[in-house]
Amino acid sequence: MEFLLLGSLEARRAGTPLELGGPRRRAVLTMLLLHANEAVSVAQLTDAVWDSPPVSPESNLRTYVAGLRKVLGDRLRTRPGHGYELVVEPGELDLDAFEDLVRAGESALIEGDAEAAADHLGQALALWRGVPTAELNAGPLLRAELTRVQERRLTAVERFAKASLELGRFDDVVDRLRLETALHPLREELWAQLMIALDRAGRRGEALEAYAAARRHVVEQVGVEPGARLRQLQQVVLESRAPSPAALTAHRQLPMDIAEFTGRESELRQLCAPGPQTTVVISAIEGMAGVGKTKLAVRAAHQLVRRYPDVQLWADLHGFDADELPADPSAVLESFLRLLGVSGAQIPESLEERAALYRDRLAGKRALVLLDNAAGEDQVLPLLPGGATCMVLITSRRTLLRLDGVRSLFLDVFTAAEALALLSRIAGEDRVQADREAAERIAELCGHLPIAVALAAKRLARRPQWTMRDLLTQLERGGGLGARGVFDLSYQALPENQRRLFRLLGLHPGEDVTAESAAALAGLTAFEAGDLLETLLDEHLLQQHTPGRYSLHDLLRAYAAEQVAAAEPPPARALARRRVLDWYVNTAWRSAQRLNPQRKLEIAAPDPAVHPRSFADRDAALLWCDTERANLVAAVREAAEHDLPEHSWSLAQCLWDFFNLRKHWADWIDTHGIALAAARSVGDRAAEGRMLITLGIALREVRRHDEAIEHTQRALAIFRATGDRSRQEPALNNLGIAYMVQGRVDEALACYEQSAEIARELGNAHTEAVLLNNIGLLHADAGRFDVALARYLRALEIRQEIKDPYSEAILLNNIGEAHRGLLDFAGAASVVDRALEVFREIGDLYGQAESLDNLGLALDGLGDRRGAEKCWLESVALFEELGEPKADEVRGRL
Question: Which of 436, 530, 619, 655 would staple 515 via disulfide (CB 3.0–4.6 Å)?
């Protein structure tokens, strides 16, 4: 029997739901379950079932009990003089399982084991299916009982959040607490934990919004101010002068540990031994390809997490990847800084400044940094923390002699005993012992190289009818020694469809592959490709650091490239490469449509065998771009290098909104530079002009103004020469912005006016509104607020027809500034308040900060100093979160 209380009431026998009757009979069963294996009196049941009981409730209760007894049998007993009792066996009631898990979680918290606490409490909360017995007409006693159960659940939520916060799992906590605060808006502890999670995740503005929402609920529903804890948290968030670093965990950054890890016990002890207390600990694992450096480093890192619980960072530096350049330390630092809560706008441009900021963010933190596959000392040096509380694990095929204080560990191939141990672990101890001589010979033929031994053992494990001697015969027949012989044996034993996909992976751009991109590469469905990838993973021919994403070991990637060159004719290789690039271009195009629906991009249709991904919303599109970023950058380069220039520039322009949103300046400049060269190589003037415009915008954003103007002028010259008026319009607009930034007002105004004229001529209302706004900005800067206001209002009319909330909010904010310039402070406050509301709706933090500053100035003009200071405090917090120098300017108003 199974009884379910944590949601809609259910009882099941052998998995089959039982008919429990109407609301009052179900109320009786609920009360009996809440007091399972105890006698429940008639008086208690009466208070549980009715607010106003009938004249003779005993008769009604006997009827309900009789009906339940037909379903439950002798489990429901009459206790003369005491009432009724329902017998429930251990493990039958979900409420009991919930309570057991909660108690285990609470004990783990007391013992300081946040990992176990989060696990137990998470399992407990997963048992809930909704609001308990919401369909009942419960009486006062049962309502009180159900409230007690709900209270226990909320306590479990709070303790789960506490454990998750200690582990740095901020996103999980935020998602859960947003739902819980919506359901229970007066429970201040939930709001407090939501504020803490948002602040620690570097989302200070949202933390302040959470406080404002909590206060609104408490004031409106109770009529008092929030409690001391919430008020103190608000002050902590407001007074913080640095972005809160998102303390990460092994579950977030370290690759998955290897279940089949074997041997290396002395090496592990050496790596995990305490180091000097006065400087950062640096351990370098050195050795040949395939010797297991990464596996050892990952195993050591997982063992070291308790010693370095605050932050764990990981990067593959691609030092010896035949198809990819070594990772630029500046780009790695950008990634690390973002993970540490630094916004894109706050990340410095130079390598030295990034390294300094990185060391500052890790100062005083117990941080572990895993740098895999390092090319050499110059690549690693900028990535080293500066504090004695940090540790760095490095793997490399080279000896890193110039790293001061490094503890080097040379990793050789397995000993014979370790190789046999790995064979036993994967293939089975009994099979090794049945023919130890053959097992030892297999290990020798594998050269005791871990990757080769693992592949050989996996072949045995998947063929239970084989003996060690059978595998030995296969290896000797192939005549190969070391890894290559095992690769051949594993590859040749695959069915042709698996062999084909494996070798085609040698053509895939970037670091890893998904079922969807592999499907495009091979002309399959994603379902078919996913099955094949899982099979290759089972065969140990692929690795998986993240669920759903697969990668090749360096040696196997080189082997796959050899096989595809040998087995696939050039036209087949070209088709596969074009298909996978089609997939990236068209999926990136669909993501761009979500990120910026106003931008019109024209791309070629994909191969009919290619099925690009679609996105339900903007967040899904942005997540895909974030996840695929390295592959997307590699795909732009891959297309340019393999005579697919249109794919190169098409993909680059599809990525423009993503790079701009995330402030990936280096990727933006690199990819668009590659795409520009690709367009020039085939004499495509239109594509060259488009790449010059977007590259010019990137150069302007990193303050290389002269270069930005030069690129934009060249683009304008191309479009004038080709008579392309539609492209002259954005070229003139961007040239005007570049001039405006340099203070060349007359030249900027001339560009804007020309561009606006073209926009009107072409009927492009969106661009006309943009240009009217820019013209208004120039007049406002010159103090001509009446002229600026007229331009803004005309732009707003157009915007309201287009329904573009982001641009409308910008205009409303600018209109408010113009009203202030004309000393109409009431009008300014009204308009800016609308802008602030829109910016909050679309989640634009910079817009919120600007509007709050503007609103504060308007309120100050009206004499509302207290209201103004409140706005400025919030504005400062947001600007600081974004790393904007304007925070100091706004702080000066306080």
Answer: 530
